[in-house]
Amino acid sequence: MWAAQQAQTQQQNQQNAEKSANSGKALGMTSAISTADPKPIDIQRTLELQEALKPFNVCESDQELNHRMEILCKLNTLVKEWIKEVSISKNMPDSVADQVGGKIYTFGSYRLGVHHKGADIDALCVAPRHIDRSDYFTSFFEKLKAHPEVTDLRAVEEAFVPVIKMNFDGIEIDMLFARLALKEISETMDLRDDMLLKNLDQKCVRSLNGCRVTDEILRLVPNIENFRLALRTIKLWAKRHGIYSNVLGYLGGVSWAMLVARTCQLYPNAVAATLVQKFFLVFSQWKWPQPVLLKQPDTVNLGFQVWDPRVNASDRYHLMPIITPAYPQQNSTFNVSASTRAVMVEEFRQGLQ
């Protein structure tokens, strides 16, 4: 399953590059600033950048990556078993219960391919329509509690986005739940389909949002490998400069990812070392509160509130809007204040020097 997800990312990379080349312009809201190919010195600097990152443990070994994949496979199997058990308990015939499926998706830094050593995994359990959130926080919670490799298990059912947190064989996992209005969940289900949100409750839409945004970011960058190395670099820089924190009024992981993705769109053929320099160039000069958008906002009308300062008065007061690319579009930086924005802009200027 996880090998398939990796293959899908490689295929996406190729499709994005072809799309960019065929259209003659970068992906995104505007045409590219430069489509220049990298010079030998740019490639050399990118190799040096890769070497420079090694002491900071920003990448895992193949063994550590395989361990994560094994854990996710075990968790996926547990989800399928649990959904079958609940289906049968609700008087569904065994033959039908075998077919209803259920699946684990990942999102956040792990899905983007930029997680560091020891990082947690953001995961989403997607279930068919006859499985309730109450089942997830009761019978599935009990199933996890009985598993020998699961420790530090806790449920936060009343959170803005309800979550089960656990340590699974040494890896921290935050797992959300979403019930789709479908009879069964296939292995090839693509969560990017906006119509999947029809008739869902707000908590399910919020839970799906992480996966939908992450997948859309990967779809909207011209070269995923260049994006990943540039993002790893910028994330490390932001953490070491004390500006990586959504809670404290700075930017969280998804916001940094969208800023780097926008840089990639503006310089579609640039390698990572060039992208890092262009990142500081672009955002030290950005005219905030002009929003950062990776694509034209979707015009889907399923009744969910989207970021739109023309309609929502509160959106007009956002100081550093970075808008998620999946419906319903949200500003990922509503915690930013005038003072934290000033700090970040100054850091961008310093980074450029």
UniProtKB/TrEMBL annotation:
**GO molecular function terms listed in the Swiss-Prot or TrEMBL record:** ATP binding; metal ion binding; poly(A) RNA polymerase activity
Q: Which cofactor does it need?
A: Mn(2+); Mg(2+)
Give the record's GO CC terms. nucleus
* Reactions that this protein is recorded to catalyse: RNA(n) + ATP = RNA(n)-3'-adenine ribonucleotide + diphosphate
- Could you say which residues form the signal peptide? none
Keywords, comma-separated and alphabetical:
ATP-binding, Magnesium, Metal-binding, mRNA processing, Nucleotide-binding, Nucleus, Transferase
Sequence positions that bind ATP: 107-109, 120-122, 174, 235, 244, 253-254
Cofactor notes: Binds 2 magnesium ions. Also active with manganese.
Q: Which residues form the Poly(A) polymerase nucleotidyltransferase domain?
A: 28-221
Q: Where in the cell is it found?
A: Nucleus
What does the record give as EC number? 2.7.7.19
Ranges for the region named Disordered are 1-26
Give one GO biological process term: mRNA processing
Comp. bias (Low complexity): 1-17
Q: Which family does it belong to?
A: Belongs to the poly(A) polymerase family.
The name of this protein is polynucleotide adenylyltransferase
Protein species of origin: Cuerna arida
